[in-house]
Design brief:
By secondary structure, the chain is an alpha/beta fold. Helix content is 25%, strand content 28%. Helix 3 links the parallel strand 9 and strand 10. Helix 2 packs parallel to helix 3. It comes from Neonectria magnoliae. It holds the Pfam family Amidohydro_1. This is Amidohydrolase-related domain-containing protein.
């Protein structure tokens, strides 16, 4: 037997797709069947063709497709376990003072791609990725490309560098 659910956001419900071709919806709905999202849109568009779906009221909530990780550092995937037996001070000094400055643009791309693919493999479909490219905008571009190439939904945070990045001056979050 098929498991079919219609998540309806109610008056203040908000469906965040992170897909520019679909957009986001106030008073939105998500139709899922057998664990797969079949449709996303305005709640009013689903009333006629979803009578066999169990209605889940998500009023006052936010519906996002998949698991969301709001503190992911994909570019550090290749250093995982490096400081498992170190104090925080030693880990930070070894990672931020030794590894990151020695990381090439290609290394940054590879680490980010691996980190994003690991997230997807574990069921995380959306991440807020904190940038570790403390030394150049080119490294940040490589991180962005790694995220794009992985296919993960991501919000990328750049802002700890003193270098400018695009329209943002050094030291400001973008």
């Amino acid at each position: 037997m098929s498991e079919k659910y219609l998540f309806v956001g109610g008056y203040v419900g908000y469906v965040a797709t992170l897909d520019n071709s679909i957009g986001a919806f106030y008073q939105g709905a998500v139709l899922a069947e057998d664990g797969i999202i079949k449709a996303v849109g305005k709640a009013e568009d689903f009333s006629a063709n979803t009578t066999d779906a169990e209605l889940i009221d998500t009023t006052n909530g936010v519906v996002t497709p998949g698991i969301v990780d709001i503190h992911r550092r994909t570019s550090m995937s290749l250093t995982r376990g490096l400081g498992a037996d170190q104090s925080l001070f030693h880990f930070l000094s070894n990672t931020y003072m030794r590894w990151l400055p020695a990381t090439s643009v290609e290394d940054m791309y590879t680490a980010t791609l691996v980190g994003a693919l690991e997230a997807l493999d574990s069921g995380v479909t959306t991440i807020f990725d904190s940038c570790e490219s403390l030394h150049s905008g080119i490294h940040s571009d490589a991180e962005l490309q790694g995220l794009r190439d992985s296919g993960i939904r991501a919000i990328f945070y750049f802002g700890t560098s003193q270098d400018s990045y695009g329209e943002y001056p050094g030291g400001e979050a973008g």
